[in-house]
Fold this sequence. Notes:
Blueprint: H1 3-18, H2 26-33, E1 55-58, E2 61-63, H3 66-76, E3 83-87, H4 93-99, E4 104-109, H5 112-124, E5 130-134, E6 147-152, H6 161-165, E7 167-179, E8 182-191, E9 194-203
Helix pairs in contact: 1-3
The protein binds S-adenosyl-L-homocysteine (SAH).
S-adenosyl-L-homocysteine binds next to strand 2, helix 4 and strand 4.
Amino acid sequence: MRNTDFYLAQEKMICDQIVHRGIFDNRVLHAIRSVPRHLFVPEEYQNSAYNDCPLPIGFGQTISQPFIVAYMVSLLQIKLNAKVLEIGTGCGYQTAILAHLASTIVSLEIIPGLAKSAEQTIRGLKLENIRIIIGDGSLGWPNEAPFDSILMSAAAPRVPKPLLAQLADGGRLILPVGDRGFQHIEIWHRIGSNFSKIEGIPVAFVPLRGKYGCKEV
Length: 217
Ligand code: SAH
């Protein structure tokens, strides 16, 4: 496909998959429009980059379906001056979208090969407010806590306690929680020392590894 075809495919994706399913937040839609998704997927999948599905990104991992990225990012209600923690950089697509919405993004990825290629793609796009760190994101990143928003894109058996502890007052944590292959999105909101939880839509994410991850991975 040529660049104009990618651009048209992206507009169609935003209209058919995201706006038609109820995501109307203009800042989020603008951020999605600013990130060329085809640059984040392996070359053999570039022509499918704007399709309504997840795609393989190597190492047995996947880039999330575009709607799921839009849904989770819009639930965070990110403010311009926010400090965001992302767990599961993967190919870096969602990381790049977050960079258009907040002032600082710290993104943790446990597979070094994915972290490296995400870093390259992101540098190519000249996004300067992202730091990708190789490590176990189930522990969060206490050095720079608290975070206004925390977004996890791998499925945990239950919410990792360190992530709740690293949430700023008024902050939100969005993550998939459940069994292997079937989970629900959980939306956590902190007010002072009070944590409330709402359940979102059913999803199917790859399992979280690490200390608070799924035991069998
Ligand atoms: N948002 C990413 C999703 C990638 S899939 C994208 O759209 O590309 C989930 C990612 O979480 C994988 O890259 C996987 O390696 C990573 N992951 C799993 N467990 C992790 C952990 N404990 N710490 C950091 N990253 C983890």
